[in-house]
Specification:
The protein has two domains: 69 residues, Arc Repressor Mutant, subunit A; 30 residues, no CATH class. Helices cover 34% and strands 16% of the residues. The protein is built from four helices and five strands; from the N terminus they run H-E-H-H-E-E-H-E-E. Strands 1-3-2 form a three-stranded antiparallel β-sheet. Helix 1 crosses helix 3 and helix 2 crosses helix 3.
Length: 119
């Protein structure tokens, strides 16, 4: 990512969600934290969504960080995530609690990178 404003926005999204793809925050609240107007906050969020670094969760502006967003920041998934499905590296997979495995219903493919990793 070459745009420093997008980098700052993605970092703020990470901070406000504590890196949890299951947590959504307002794109406008992220902008406010960075001191930018609503229109610029919306444009930055849209750019991150197009790049698959963020995901639009609600029509009112709720967004979440994606697995690709975490990777762009060289971050990993938080350890204490509840059972949930998320998109990682463009493939939908199920991230389950430690020892259970991943890929339920998705052929155990591409979960957290290669389908063989366990949390």
């Amino acid at each position: 990512m070459d745009n420093p404003e997008e980098q700052a926005y993605l970092n703020q999204l990470y901070t406000m969600t504590q890196g949890d793809p299951g947590v959504q925050v307002s794109m406008y609240d992220i902008g406010a934290a960075l001191g930018v107007e609503k229109s610029e906050a919306g444009a930055l969020a849209e750019s991150l969504i197009i790049q698959d670094l963020a995901e639009l969760k609600t029509l009112s502006g709720g967004i979440a960080i994606t697995g690709n967003g975490l990777k762009a920041l060289d971050k990993t998934l938080p350890v204490n995530l509840p059972d949930q499905a998320l998109t990682w590296a463009g493939t939908r997979c199920s991230i389950l609690k430690k020892g259970v495995g991943c890929g339920a219903g998705f052929g155990n493919q591409n979960c957290a990178g290669n389908g063989k990793e366990r949390l």
